[in-house]
């Protein structure tokens, strides 16, 4: 009787750990960032992406994870700014978004982005004016 109880307990623990890993385990997606929305207060940060070479979209939420699940992510505003910069400077360049979670439409669930791996030239601050062509030199200013 005691062996059966221990066996059932082990099976239940394995099932719980498996579900937890599948639900909150890390994942990566190679996508192109096509938009960023939200202000972090009333409207949740979102990253709008598209798979390269397709029209299939994937939306990520971008919120602090805190201590559970244990990603210790407290920089959603910084990640949003990085995504916005990548969207402006390199809209056609695929990037890798790391995160966790599933996209389940009917439950309104989105994976949470934890980091973005992008080419260095896409993540550095631009020295040009927003909306100007990269080939047009900046006007000189006199102080």
Structure description:
With 143 residues, this protein is an alpha+beta fold. The protein has a domain of 99 residues: OB fold (Dihydrolipoamide Acetyltransferase, E2P). The chain has 3 helices and 5 strands. Strands 3-2-1-4-5 form a 5-stranded antiparallel sheet. A hairpin with a 6-residue loop joins strand 2 and strand 3. The radius of gyration is 20 Å and the shape is elongated. The mean pLDDT is 86. InterPro entries: Phage_phiNM3_A0EWY4.
What are the main properties of this structure?
about 140 residues, alpha+beta
CATH class of the domain at 25-123: Mainly Beta
- How much is the radius of gyration in Å? 20 Å
What share of residues is helical? Answer: 25-40%
SSE string, helix = H, strand = E?
A: HEEEHEEH
Mean pLDDT across every amino acid position: 86
The major sheet is characterized as: 5 strands, antiparallel
Can you tell me the residue ranges where pLDDT is under 50 for at least 5 consecutive residues? none
Strand order of the largest sheet: 3-2-1-4-5
Please indicate the percent range of residues in DSSP E strands (runs of 2 or more): 15-25%
Which fold name fills CATH's third level, the topology of the domain at 25-123? OB fold (Dihydrolipoamide Acetyltransferase, E2P)
Q: In the CATH classification, which architecture of the domain at 25-123 applies?
A: Beta Barrel
Mass-distribution shape: elongated
Report how far the terminal alpha carbons are from each other.
86 Å
Number of strands: 5
């Amino acid at each position: 009787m005691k062996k059966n109880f221990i066996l059932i307990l082990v099976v239940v623990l394995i099932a719980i750990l498996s579900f937890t890993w599948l639900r909150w385990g890390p994942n990566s997606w190679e996508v192109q960032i096509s938009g960023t929305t939200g202000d972090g207060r009333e409207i949740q940060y979102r990253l709008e992406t598209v798979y390269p070479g397709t029209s299939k979209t994937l939306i990520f939420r971008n919120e602090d994870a805190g201590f559970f699940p244990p990603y210790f992510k407290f920089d959603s505003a910084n990640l949003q700014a990085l995504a916005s910069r990548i969207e402006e400077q390199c809209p056609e360049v695929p990037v890798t978004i790391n995160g966790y979670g599933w996209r389940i439409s009917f439950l309104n669930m989105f994976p949470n982005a934890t980091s973005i791996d992008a080419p260095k030239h896409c993540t550095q601050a631009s020295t040009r004016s927003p909306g100007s062509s990269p080939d047009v030199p900046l006007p000189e200013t006199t102080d």
